[in-house]
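explain this:

___
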Amino acid sequence: MRLKPACFIIFLLSNFTQAFWLTQVKKRLINSTTPQLEWAPCGNLELMECEKTYLNISECGKLPVPLDYQDKCGEQIDLALITIKATIQPYKGSVLLNLGGPGLSGIQFVTTIGKTYQDESGTGRTIPFKCQKSESTKSRRGINYPLPHDILPQQDLWGEIKGGMWDDYGNFASDCETSMRKHGPHMGTVTAARDILSIVDDLQEGGQLKYWGISYGAILGQYFAAMFPDRFDRMLLDSIPRLDDYLSGT
C-alpha cells in the first residue's frame, strides 16, 4: 500500500463532508486549475457484507496526482475517494480524516461505521505494499514471531531477538526493498501530506485544510502543518504519538 495513508479520508462530521482515498497507478497529465474530482455511485466494491452498511449513501471519485511530486510530468496515480455528503445546512466544507495505521483502509471504515461518525459533533485499495517473501522468510515464521510464554516481562530478551527473529526481519526488509523499489520511495508521510494538499486544492473550498488525525494521522497532521503552515484552517489531533519517537525510528 502506498503509505499515505492510506487511506486518508475526507470525512463528514455533522455538517461537513467525508471521503476516503485509495490509489491505482495511471499515467495522466494533471490540470492544476480545473477540478478533476467528480462524484458518482461507487458501484460494486469488493467488500464483506458487514462493510457495506453505508455503501448505498456513499459516492466515489478519483483524483489524479503525481507519483513523484518532484516529477509532475512523470507517472500519475489516482487517489480514489469515497464520500458521504453533508445533510445539515449550512454546509461548512470538507474535513479530511486519517484514522491511523498507516495503511488502514478508509473505504471499509466509512462504509462500515460512517453513519456513526456522521451523527457526532464533528489501504486497502491503494498501491498494494506487498513484500514478496524470500524462501528463507517463507520457511520461518516471518514477522509473526511470538516470544515464549514463559519469559518474564523484566527479563533480558536480546537472546530471543538476535536469533531467528533478527534474521527474519532482515530478510523481510530486503524483500520489501526488492519488491517495492519502484513505488516504495514515494510511500511516505511527506508524500501523503502533498496528496492532502492536492485534494484541498481540487475541492476549491477556500484552499484551507480542515483535518482530523488519529494516532499516525496526528503525526501526518503535524507534518502538513510544518510543510504548509498557511494552508490549514483547523485540526483535531487525537491519540497523539510522540513525534520524536516516530522520527527517530524512521
About this structure: The two ends are 17 Å apart (CA to CA). Strands lie at 8-10, 18-26, 40-41, 59-66, 76-84, 96-98, 209-214, 232-238.
